[in-house]
Every structure is written in C-alpha cells, then in structure tokens.
Specification:
This protein is α+β, with helices and mostly antiparallel strands and about 800 residues long. The protein has 21 helices and 42 strands. The chain has a 7-stranded mixed sheet with strand order 30-33-34-38-37-36-35. A hairpin with a 5-residue loop joins strand 33 and strand 34. Helix 6 crosses helix 7, helix 7 runs antiparallel to helix 10 and helix 20 crosses helix 21. It starts with a strand and ends with a strand.
Length: about 800
Amino acid sequence: MKISLKWLSDYIDIQDYFSKPKDLAALLTGAGLEVESISDQGKQFESVVIGHILKKDQHPNADRLSLCQVSIGDGRVQQIVCGAQNHKQDDRVVVALPGAILPGDFAIKISKIRGVESSGMLCSEKELGLKAESEGILILPQNAPIGKSYAEYMGFDDILFELKVTPNRADCLSHFGLAREIGCLLGRPCALPIESLIEGSQSTKQLVRVEVKNSDLCPRYAGRAMTNLKVAPSPDWLKKRLESVGVKAINNVVDVTNFVMHELGQPLHAFDINEIKGAKIIVDQAKPGEKFTTLDGSEKTLKGEELSIRDQERVIALAGIVGGKNSGIQNETKNIFIEAAYFSASHIRKNARALGIETDSSYRFSRGVNPEAVPLAMNRAAQLIQSLAGGEIASEAYDIYPHAIVKKPIEISLDLLSQRLGFKIEASVFVSWMKRLGCQISDGRSTANLATDLGSESWQILPPVFRTDINIDMDLVEEFARLHGYHHIPEALPALHHSPSQDSTSFQNDKRLRRMLVQQGFHQVIHYAFTSEKWQNQILGDVSKLTQYGLRSDAKAVHLMNPLNEELGVMRTSLLPGLIKNVAHNFHNAVHDGRVFEIGFAHFASIGENGQAKYEQETRLAIALWGFDFNLWKKTQNALAAFELKSNLLSLFKKLGINKFSFESKEAPAEFLHPKQSVALVSETKPIGLMGSLHPNILEDLKIRTDVAVMELNVDKLMQGQPRVLRYAPISRQPFVDRDLSFVMPRDLQAAQVEAVIKQNAGSFLKEIKIVDVFVGGHLKENEQSVSFRLLFQDQNLSLEDAQVNEIRDKIINAVSQRFQIALR
C-alpha cells in the first residue's frame, strides 16, 4: 500500500520526519508495519528550477538552435543552447541545471553544442517524465517564481512509503489509520479536518428507498442522496493526492469516493439515482445464473451466493467488490446516492476470490473495516463532493444498523503480562500504552464479575472497535510488546530439563532419501498439494492402472471447498503431473537437460465405517530426468534417459541395502508411460512403484523435444525396515575372472528375465553382472537383438581356474537356451 507523507501530515504533525524519512520507516517497521521502500519525489527533480528567459538569440553556428540567457534567481544567469522553437524572451521555463538527473538516467552537465558552451537544458514535459510525448519545451505561467524548485512549485515535494500491511491490521489501510498508529507510537495528537455538513431541504428517504434483506452479511448500511451537482474533472490538488498513491483520476464524484477510501479506509460507492430502477435499493443475495457487467465491462455469471446491491429489476453492484456499469457515474449525472456499508469480511473475501475480482474495495472489506466509520465516511464524501461539484446534500440519510457491533472487555493482570513477556512491567507504562491505543480502561478489582486471582494489578480493557484483531488477553500482551518495543524483552536461553525428542522414523527416512538424491545431482522441488483436476487427468489417464505398481489410485480426486483458483482445485493423487510441468517449463526456457525429485503426499478419500468421508495420504517419491547428452565431436546421442534413471535407482538401492529387487514389464502399462520402455519396480517380492520413459504423445502435446524418464515410488514400502544394519565383509585378495555372453534374443524378451536366469545358475562365485552392449541390425533379423552380458566371478579365498569358470558359463548358457530358446551370437 502506498502512503503519502504530505497527505499524512494533514492529520498528524510529522514535519520533523520529512528530513529523515528513514527514521519514520524504522519506527513503523519496528511496530510491525514494514516499510518496503521509500520514494522521495523531490529527488527526481533535484537541480531542476524555474527560469526566466532574459534574452533569446540565434545560435552562431546552427540555424535551428537558439542561444538563451536564462535567469535562475539570486542574480545567477545561465547560458543555455535550446533546439525547441516554441519559446521566446520573457517566458518562464523549467531549467535542468548541471548535476540534475532526469528520468531515464539522463544526466545534465556543462557541454559545448556546435562550439558554444551550454550550462543546462530547457525541459519539455516528456524530458521531465510527465508525458509520453510533448511538442516544445514547457512554458509556465508568468507568475511562476524564478529560482524556485520545480518539484516544490508543482507539488512534487512528497515522500512516498510502500507499506506491507499484515492481514490483521486493516485499521492501517488508510492515511488516517496510519496517522492514528503513528500518533500512538509517538504520543502525538491526531485529528481529522472535517467541516460541518450543510443539509438541504430534500429528503434522502423520499428520493431513494432502501431495504436490507440480509443483515447477517450486511450488518450496517448507510446512504445519502445529493442532487443538482455537476460532474467535472477534479481539481489539481485532488488529482495529485490520488496519483501519489497510484489511483487514476476519473471525475470529481468518483475521485472523492476514492479519496475518502484512502483517507479513512472505508470504501464507498456512488450510484446515479436516475439509473436506479424503481428508485429503490435492495441489499440481498443474487439470483442463480444472473448476469452482471462490472464497471470495466467484464461480464460475470452469478451463482446466487453473492451479496448484491440491486434495484427492482437487476443487480447494480456486487456488495463490497465492484460497481455495475449500468448505474455508474457519467458526465451527465445530476443526482447521486452515496453508499457506505459494513459487509461480512469472510463473505466478501470468498466471493471476490471465486469471481476472480480484486479491487481496492474488496481488499479492505475482506480484511474488515471499522463499522463505526460508516456514517463518518459517507458524510465526509458528501461534504467534499458539494465543495467540488456543487449541488444539494439531502437530509434524512439512511443508517440501517439493527445489531450494533460491540467489543467485549478483556480481563488482564500485570502478573500475566510479566509472566508471558519475561520481565517486570510497570503498571503505569502498560496503562499509558493502552490509552494511547484508544482503549477504555477500568480497574479490575472494582468490577464485580472479575476473577479474584488476577494479581495485585488488574484491569478490564475495552479495545476500540476498529481494532478487530484484539479480542483476548494474549492479543493485549502481544500489542503491549509491539508498542513498548521488543528490545525490552531480555535475551535468555530457555532451561532444558529434558533431552530433545528424537525425529520420527519417517522424517529420518525422508531426510536420507533427499541427501542421497542430492548427492547424485538431483534438485529438489516442492509443489502445492493442490493441482488442476484437468491437468492431472490429462497426464495420468486411467488411474486404475497404477494399482499394479503398488501405488494407490482413486478415479475421483479430493475437491477443495474454497480453492485459491481453478488451477488449484483438487488435492493431487500423484506427484508426477507437477514434475512433468516442471520439465516442460524448464525445457521451454532453454534448460534442455536436468534432473529433479520431490518427496510429498498423494491424497485420497474413502468412506469410513460411519459413512463419513475419510481422508488419507500416501508418501511418494517422484523423479524426472530429461535431456540429451551429445558427444561434441561425433554428434551421437547417448543412452535413453530411462537407462540413466535406472542407474540412479540402482545406486539408491545399493545405499539403502536393498538387494532383492527386480523390474517387471506390464501388458497394460500406465497410459503416461512408453509401452516398451516402462517397468514396475519390485522390491523383496512387493511392487513399490513405476519407472520408464514418458509416452511420446505427452512429449508431443507439451512440445518437449527431448527424452524424459520418470519414476514414482511408495516411500513407505521402499523404506520398510530402514535403516538397515550394515554388514561388512573383508575385501577379497583374489582376482576377478570375467566372461562375456552375447545372446541373440527377440526384441520383446526383457534382458532382466535373462539376467534372472543367469543369477539362478551362476552360484556364489558371481559377484556382478551388467549389460555392456545392445546390438541390432547387421545379419540379425528385424525382430532380433544381440544383448551382451559381462559376468564377474571371484572367490573369497582362492584364485578361480578357467575350468571352474567355464563350467559355470556352460551351465548358464544351457539354462538360458532351454528357458528362452535363444542361442549365443
């Protein structure tokens, strides 16, 4: 939120902080209102002053240039070369002196132009950053004071704060609200300069009828009519005020409503009375399917849950969110109805989010405005509009407030304060801060319903209504600590009477997995547990196929009742859609290879024994690896990403001590996997997940022009029995003996099946087996391939002889040939 110090000074004396705005920013930040940036408008026009052209001559060496003698006050005259043609002797102009830096980092310095020295520049509105385009230099009125700072002359001598206001401090979303906060912090008086209201003879209740049908969602509704006013552009002072906080000026009526909102924090809306059908305003919920067009022309279809402001035929505004195009203020408008109200914060927040509309009004209403400021803001706007647009203020304003919002007193004791903050607090200090905060204080000991054990000093504190965040005694404790200063809280290490509890096994297992994957070069990513149902279905396809991999799947995702947006409407049932989106985003941003992983929950719902929905979650590990690895000289592509991912998985299994595992192909694999390049992961006879290349159709749809491999595991099944006890064995002193076996086999026969038979017949001497080559083509048939296995044999105690190894080799060849009807190449 933008705050103007010049505007702020209308309500509290802070002139001493204009020369040291950082001190004021530090004060506010220390009190919990973080100042994110400070912008000094005057600095961008430093060394820019008002000048008077004493003499204008032709440049001696250029036909299109003039040579001017310009007075800048105090008897100083600058010689300036100018290329514009719209100025003349005796004009008042804007002069940028040497040392000035104009918008666009354009530095002004003494220079020679066509052999003649020029000590400055006569500025146009474009060069000053005031307009996108301008013709000639800026000519000022003849009464412009010579030598005066241009920033000060134009009112650009303001200092702007960019404030980060936390959701609980809606009372500071205005200039007067912040002035009230500064007054509390500095102990200075704060006042609102409001003139008395002069009402006319006409009655608001005769001009417009009002009916509030839903007082739960609209506890307070006020309105006042004005007649015979003239809509016109706003005066400069109002335009500058609004522009200083980033609001575009529209006309004097609309600008006043925006001004009062930024002044008091109370959103207002002005209706054209002539556009209110039946001259009646009804505050009620919309009708299902009803169409509504906002002021900016956007059409919305209403669900019937939204609180609306309507006339006898249609919706003319969405309460607390945005006005309708059908009743807005036009240049021809003569009679208006000013609306000020207090709406349910939760209702406005929910509807604004559902409709995808965020306005300054909904931003304030959704955080909670001050119900006591409703008539004040309405009358303030009426008084300002009358001063700018004329007209008559109607009497008998509406103020429908059937159930006044009343704060309850909070009981608190000095002992409780001291105990919670850890240091002794003086009663007078606490009472002083509460009074500066605007609280009403009574002595707790003299109150009949006050508990008797509140300590030697106790009070009943009644917070002001505008502080919606102060409701219990702990709120007062926090508020006192904030105002008094956190630096008063002594630093002390808490006594440790018990040893810290150990981390849970699941936490330790997740930590181990993260460390192992990072060591292999993977980057961890973290997503929301929410996702788009459309995107999830698009990637996963038929989720029933995931059960064969040991992964739970539900056809229907868990829907959120109040999602952040449509793209985050359901709980995820798999981690892979999020990772695949990461791969697509990175690839389309020139990251053509990478590896990422995520450990998180997949969420499901089932029906419990009592018939109620039961929500469950399953811890998953998902990995995505993509990219080509090219040889710089041969321009050849290395193995598929799936092979690289398999290598990473084998390394992970080795570190976890998992020895009994296998890869099984499925006749009907998951739809997002390549049918010929995917497997189920089986650990100790149980399926724990899936791995494979991403389906070519998905790669084509996402325009990913590279190989992508993915994997998803059930972490609980993977880490069952972890951490496992490591068993060490002495390193054998005997040499390895290797044998290579190349089998010609059908392409649809998995190498893993052959490898399993080799292991069954190799005996205890086999220490390692790996595939070293896959060959197709040549003299082989089209459906054949040659797969070469390298077998490493070793005995712990003796050197193996060739005869022993050859005997094992022959046994393996016979077993493989009989089982699969294949032969050596």
